[in-house]
């Protein structure tokens, strides 16, 4: 079974803090993705990566950065957290050839106070 | 601007009956359309997809229909089971990223 794990299920941070969300997959997938899910807006892509050290902006990259130093790990960084970044963050991964089938982690509920 | 819309936030269906979940899109360049299912406290899981050159794809109890002229797709679940109770997201594949709808919460009543 493919497993995508995220470092925390719940996280509470203060405005202005630097926040790291970690994601690890164990299926040797080339692609990795970060989404956020908000009520009334569905899932929106923040960043994705198709290879180590490669990254591409999604729909809403502002206020975020990412890091992919190893194939199995994809980190989302909030350089200076703001209250409008309170959300559910979902990581996903997939093979390049079966891109339509993305495997998601359980999500991290981030609250920024 | 939402490129994929699911106008029904919720749907309730009796066990054994058909569930029909609807989705509309605006981007005629989508190559594929997908449905994902999400249980509480879990990430979404892939359910079924359809290529933009087809009008129907079937996988067991799940069938997706695509009407390109109407820019509309639907997911049919027959027969519906209580374990199908979840939030269903449709998505369009824009080439290098998915555009998801807002989801429809399906409740199958035993």
Strand and helix layout:
The complex is a heterodimer of chains A (113) and B (110).
Chain A: E1 4-6, E2 10-13, E3 19-25, E4 31-38, E5 42-49, E6 56-57, E7 64-70, E8 73-78, E9 87-94, E10 103-104, E11 108-112
Parallel strand pairs in A: 2-11
Antiparallel strand pairs in A: 1-3, 3-8, 4-5, 4-9, 5-6, 7-8, 9-10, 9-11
Chain B: E1 4-5, E2 10-14, E3 19-25, E4 32-38, E5 45-51, E6 56-59, E7 62-67, E8 72-77, E9 86-93, E10 98-100, E11 104-109
Parallel strand pairs in B: 2-11
Antiparallel strand pairs in B: 1-3, 3-8, 4-5, 4-9, 6-7, 7-8, 9-10, 9-11
What is the averaged pLDDT score of chain B? 95
Number of alpha- plus pi-helical segments of chain B: 0
Helix content of chain A: under 10%
H/E element string of chain B? EEEEEEEEEEE
Gap between N and C termini of chain B: 38 Å
Number of helices of chain A: 0
Assembly status: heterodimer
User: Largest sheet of chain B at a glance?
Assistant: 6 strands, mixed
Key descriptive features of the protein:
heterodimer; A: 113 residues; mainly beta; four-stranded antiparallel sheet; globular; B: 110 residues; six-stranded mixed sheet; 11 strands
Structure description:
The complex is a heterodimer of chains A (113) and B (110). With 113 residues, chain A is an all-beta fold. Chain A contains no helices and 11 strands. In chain A, strands 2, 4, 5, 6, 9, 10 and 11 form a 7-stranded mixed beta sheet that branches. In chain A, strands 1-3-8-7 form a 4-stranded antiparallel beta sheet, with no helix packed on it. Chain B is globular, with a radius of gyration of 13 Å. Chain B has strands at residues 4-5, 10-14, 19-25, 32-38, 45-51, 56-59, 62-67, 72-77, 86-93, 98-100, 104-109. Chain B is built from no helices and 11 strands. In chain B, a hairpin with a 2-residue loop joins strand 6 (56-59) and strand 7 (62-67). With 110 residues, chain B is mostly beta strands. In chain B, strands 2, 4, 5, 9, 10 and 11 form a 6-stranded mixed beta sheet that branches. Chain B has a 5-stranded antiparallel beta sheet with strand order 1-3-8-7-6, with no helix packed on it. Chains A and B meet through strand 5 and strand 10 of A and strand 5, strand 9 and strand 10 of B.
């Amino acid at each position: 079974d493919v497993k995508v794990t995220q470092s925390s299920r719940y996280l509470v941070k203060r405005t202005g803090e630097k926040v790291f969300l970690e994601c690890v997959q164990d299926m040797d997938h080339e692609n990795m993705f970060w989404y956020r899910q908000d009520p009334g807006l569905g899932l929106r892509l923040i960043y994705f990566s198709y290879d180590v050290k490669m990254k591409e902006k999604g729909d809403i990259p502002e206020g975020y950065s990412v890091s992919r130093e190893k194939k199995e790990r994809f980190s989302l960084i909030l350089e200076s957290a703001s209250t409008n970044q309170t959300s559910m963050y979902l990581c996903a991964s997939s093979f390049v050839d079966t891109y339509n089938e993305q495997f998601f982690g359980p999500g991290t509920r981030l609250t920024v106070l | 601007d939402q490129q994929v819309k699911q106008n029904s936030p919720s749907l309730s269906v009796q066990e054994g009956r058909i569930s029909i979940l609807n989705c509309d899109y605006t981007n005629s360049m989508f190559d594929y359309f997908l449905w994902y299912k999400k249980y509480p406290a879990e990430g979404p899981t892939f359910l079924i997809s359809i290529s933009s050159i087809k009008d129907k794809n079937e996988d067991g109890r799940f069938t997706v229909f695509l009407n390109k002229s109407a820019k509309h797709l639907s997911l049919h679940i027959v027969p519906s089971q209580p374990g199908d109770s979840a939030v269903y997201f449709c998505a369009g594949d824009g080439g290098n990223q998915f555009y998801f709808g807002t989801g429809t919460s399906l409740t199958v009543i035993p």
